[in-house]
Specification:
This protein is α/β, with parallel strands linked by helices and 935 residues long. It contains 33 helices and 37 strands. The protein is 33% helix and 20% strand. The strands form 6 sheets. It has a 9-stranded mixed β-sheet, with helices on both faces. Strands 16-15-14-12-13-17-18-29 form an 8-stranded mixed β-sheet, with helices on both faces. The protein is globular and about 95 Å long.
Length: 935
């Protein structure tokens, strides 16, 4: 059956921004829907890029069948129609045909006068594809309730199906009540007026766009629904939402939600987390049903994710990599030949049993566990703890806060290796009895110390995946991180559980502590607490002693182990997934690089390294400090912690060490004695200038000082000692030394326009993006498919996002971030050399160099934080500005302006990574004469 091309002069013909007249089609289709009488034909309107495909001179490699939701129409998919025949898509193996339908009673399709339920709409879509003779391969694309309908078509046309693409949608209530917005829209007093009589429902939907829709785009979305009769389908769509099992459409919904579990095709989900209707809980439900799906969450995007972000580019990139066979088009009419089509895929979420040992773990007191057995290239994270389960010596020490310490009472508490191993076994058993399973994600909101360490190793023992969104991200950042990771369980102190309730963080609540008898029942109810850790440990111990503990299947080396988060200093914090193998490789790298043998005594002023203590076989202690504010570490607190374990190693962030130096006058002779026993001081997170390191050396005179360079995605990457810093001298950037054990570093040269040459080099003096390769590099970014693909776009390497160069001695020099490059009329400039020069000027505490102006014509501006702090932010004093200009000129950087600020905006975790993007925007406002406010 041939579709008709809609005449340009027909009613409601547009023009609509982004829609080509040649795309518009109409077709009369025989209906087999139950709601229609036999012999009924329905008039469909849809957009079809068949003419564009024909113009390429190539056959389409497949068809995207795009289905809108309520209250949009096929206009929603215009960027896919345009991108399907773009030069980039053709180069990647295209073109693709795109058919974007207007569902009956919606868009510019026929107003049928019937109430069409979900089953009817799935049948309708099948009727249309049959009339079009659509044979395959087909990739369904759906949004909102169009997602359910497209998936319904997919489950009934498996022979044609090559893949699934979804944007914000839901296939099941997933145990939750309807979102408030839909509950209101369904209320009898609101429903007809809000959805049909008025255009309120449309206006509210359009207002969800982030940023706001352009007026002409908003008008295009409104075009098919300008009168109440044309909005009848909008009201019916809302009324057909199956909110309970008694609803007429519940059976159809249940059939779809069950059927997609057996779809064995690639899937891509692109999500707007700010959607007030289809929130992340529905994403979690989809992933439970379609664990093979790739996911990208666009932070800041909302319901109309197609309008908020570019989805066309990633969709066609994903299709090329996951649906098209290597080197050729998708297979023919019978659907994709899976033998040569989509590549074999392993589920990335909850891989329970996929690569397990099969024997599980019986939590006996044997010296080793079958599930934790080592292989030639892999020694589990729990191996050292298993080996020392009969050891009565101290494993972990918690320094008690001085403010709450009992006079003349103990300054610390500790746990032995034997007790730690026992507690880990007890807690793992208790968690398993509660319902925690291998692959479950568990958010841990507990301060560093004995409890958190026990929790982490119990989770690793179970094969559960720990989610560590630390308080250093701030409340807003933590919330984004936790919602993005979507944990099934959330374990926290009372303050964290309160936050979880207030901010609706996901996960069944478990309290880190017991409540008092007087408040127990009330707090359990208010905080939605299912159990407490002391209860779980007691229950687990009783079960083990009674020989009734379950046999627990432990994780395979390549199963997910942890989701950690970047600091958020260059945007929203990104989740970084580590497998058990990669975590173990990180441990092994640290051990080999710094000779951290069993028996090492580690003071961890940087929380992650306290958690590695048991895996390293090191006794560890966290000083009395606020781990969310590194600058709260004092010299006496550091020395007290060192004395508590006779420390040989200290790890602290630069901000922490700066405050240690600032409070060093408070050290008593006993403190100095404790610090004199330290043999190694490590500082990472941001550069620490040589003069400050020299002062640290005076505090720890017998220690070797090292400043490893790395990132959440790979820590460490390189290492340099104080002696090495002095030997390197001054240069363009910060010298961070040579690659650590097992790591390799290369450079992807940067072009004058800021683009990157994908051919890696190790040639000295070439500036570009720093590339990293090591066994301990992340497995992937979590639910950030686009980010992950970009980070691995140079085969065999992780693209760090940092910019730098190698010198003739193979040492790496970091010159800044790729995002902070200055693209001037004279070419690309990096910021760090100018910042170092400015920081050598008297009165400058910290400096940041930013680019102001359009790309390719930016000018350099230096912003300085003065000591003492400036009373007013703005143009620097003339004498200071002159000195800074002269210093930066010596590094080859000509400045357009010098600004002073009272305090630099930095990340919370390190208190040291300067947010140059905020500063650049602030400087632009300041120099334009606008009200600049704060960065």
């Amino acid at each position: 059956m041939v579709a008709g091309v809609l005449a340009a002069s027909s009613p409601d013909s547009g023009p609509w921004p982004g829609v080509r007249a040649s795309w518009r089609r109409t077709l009369a289709v025989p209906s087999t829907a139950a709601v229609d009488a036999p012999g009924t034909r329905r008039q469909w309107h849809f957009l079809d890029n068949a003419d564009d495909v024909e113009a390429t001179g190539r056959e389409a490699v497949g068809t995207l069948l795009c289905v809108h939701g309520n209250p949009t129409w096929s206009y929603l998919w215009r960027t896919l129609l345009a991108g399907a025949t773009s030069a980039a898509t053709l180069a990647a193996g295209g073109p693709w045909r795109v058919i974007a339908v207007d569902q009956l009673d919606m868009g510019f399709s026929e107003r049928t006068g019937t109430f069409r339920r979900l089953e009817d709409r799935i049948t309708d879509l099948g009727d249309l594809t049959a009339a079009l003779g659509l044979a395959g391969p087909v990739v369904t694309v759906g949004h909102d309730w169009g997602g359910v309908i497209s998936l319904g078509w997919a489950t009934r046309h498996r022979g044609q199906l090559a893949g699934v693409v979804l944007t914000n949608t839901a296939v099941h209530p997933a145990g939750f009540s309807l979102p408030p917005a839909l509950t209101l829209a369904l209320h009898p007093a609101v429903h007809k007026w809000g959805t049909t009589t008025s255009a309120a429902f449309l206006r509210v939907t359009h207002s969800l766009a982030q940023p706001a829709l352009a007026p002409e785009v908003r008008a295009a979305f409104m075009a098919p629904y300008r009168t109440a009769p044309r909005r009848a389908g909008v009201g019916n769509f809302v009324a057909d939402i199956p909110a309970s099992e008694s609803h007429p459409s519940w059976a159809a919904l249940d059939s779809v939600s069950s059927g997609i579990r057996t779809l064995d095709v690639p899937a891509l989900i692109m999500w707007g987390p700010r959607d007030p209707v289809f929130s992340d809980r529905y994403l979690r439900d989809l992933l439970e049903r379609m664990p093979q799906a790739d996911v990208h969450r666009f932070e800041g995007a909302s319901h109309l994710v197609q309008e908020d972000r570019d989805i066309a580019t990633p969709v066609f990139d994903w299709l090329a990599k996951n649906v098209l066979p290597a080197g050729g088009p998708a297979a023919g009419p019978a659907g994709v030949d899976l033998a040569v089509g989509p590549r074999p895929r392993r589920p990335r979420h909850e891989l329970a049993g996929s690569e397990g040992t099969g024997s599980g773990t019986s939590f006996s007191r044997a010296p080793s566990r079958p599930g934790h057995a080592a292989t030639a290239d892999y020694r589990p994270m729990l191996a050292e703890l298993d080996a020392r389960r009969g050891d009565g010596s101290v494993a972990i020490v918690d320094m008690l806060p001085a403010a709450g310490r009992v006079p003349a009472g103990p300054a610390s508490r500790s746990v032995s290796w034997a007790a730690l191993a026992r507690d880990v076994d007890d807690l793992a058993t208790g968690l398993a009895d509660l319902g925690v399973r291998r692959g479950d994600r568990i958010s841990l909101l507990v301060p560093p110390g004995i409890t958190l360490t026990t929790l982490i190793y119990a989770c690793l023992s179970l094969g559960a995946v720990i989610v560590v969104a630390d308080a250093g991200l701030g409340t807003k950042g933590m919330g984004r991180a936790i919602k993005g990771a979507g944990p099934a369980w959330l374990i926290g102190i009372e303050r964290a559980l309160t936050g979880a309730r207030i901010y609706n963080w996901p996960g069944v609540g478990i309290s880190a502590d017991d409540f008092t008898p007087a408040t127990d029942s009330v707090k359990r109810r208010l905080l939605s607490v299912a159990a407490t850790l002391p209860e779980l440990m007691a229950n687990g111990r009783a079960m083990r002693l009674a020989a009734s503990a379950p046999v627990l299947e432990t994780a395979a080396p390549d199963d997910d182990a942890a989701v950690l988060f970047t600091s958020g200093s260059t945007g929203p914090a990104k989740g970084v997934v580590y497998t058990h193998r990669r975590l173990a490789a990180m441990r092994d790298t640290l051990k080999a690089t710094y000779k951290l043998e069993a028996g090492t005594a580690l003071v961890a002023g940087f929380a992650p390294f306290a958690l590695l203590g048991p895996a390293l076989g090191a006794t560890s202690v966290t000083p009395d400090m606020d781990v969310t504010a590194p600058r709260t570490l004092t010299a006496t607190a550091l020395a007290d912690a060192a004395a508590a374990i006779n420390a040989t190693v200290v790890f602290a962030s630069p901000a922490a060490l700066v405050n240690v130096l600032a409070t060093a006058a408070e050290l008593a002779p006993k403190h100095k004695t404790a610090l004199s026993g330290v043999e190694l001081v490590l500082s990472a997170g941001a550069p620490l200038a040589e003069p400050l390191l020299a002062r640290v050396q005076e505090l720890a005179p017998n220690a070797e000082l090292h400043t490893p360079y790395g990132m959440t995605e790979a820590l460490p990457v390189t290492d340099i000692s104080l002696a090495g810093i002095r030997a390197a001298g001054d240069g363009n950037g910060v010298c961070v030394g040579v690659p650590v054990s097992g790591a390799s570093v290369a450079i992807a040269p940067v072009a004058p326009d800021g683009s990157v040459d994908p051919e890696p080099t190790t040639q000295a003096g070439v500036t570009g993006e720093i590339l990293v390769r090591a066994p301990h590099v992340k497995e992937r970014y979590d639910r950030l498919w686009i980010t992950q693909e970009q980070s691995t776009s140079i085969p065999g390497w992780h693209r760090s996002g940092d910019v730098g160069h190698l010198d003739s001695g193979g040492r790496l020099w970091v010159e800044g971030r790729m995002a902070h490059l200055l693209t001037t009329a004279g070419g690309v400039r990096t910021p760090v050399a100018g910042e170092q020069a400015a920081e050598r000027v008297a009165g400058v505490a910290r400096a940041a160099v930013v680019g102001v102006g359009p790309a390719g014509a930016q000018v350099a501006v230096t912003i300085v934080e003065t000591a003492p702090p400036a009373k007013h932010s703005g143009l620097a004093a003339p004498a200071l500005a002159t000195a800074v200009r002269e210093a930066c000129a010596g590094s080859g950087l000509e400045l357009a302006a010098v600004l002073a600020i009272d305090a630099m905006p930095t990340d919370i975790r390190h208190n040291s990574k300067i947010d140059r993007a905020k500063l650049a925007a602030w400087a632009s406002r300041m120099l334009a004469g606008e009200k600049a406010g704060r960065p």
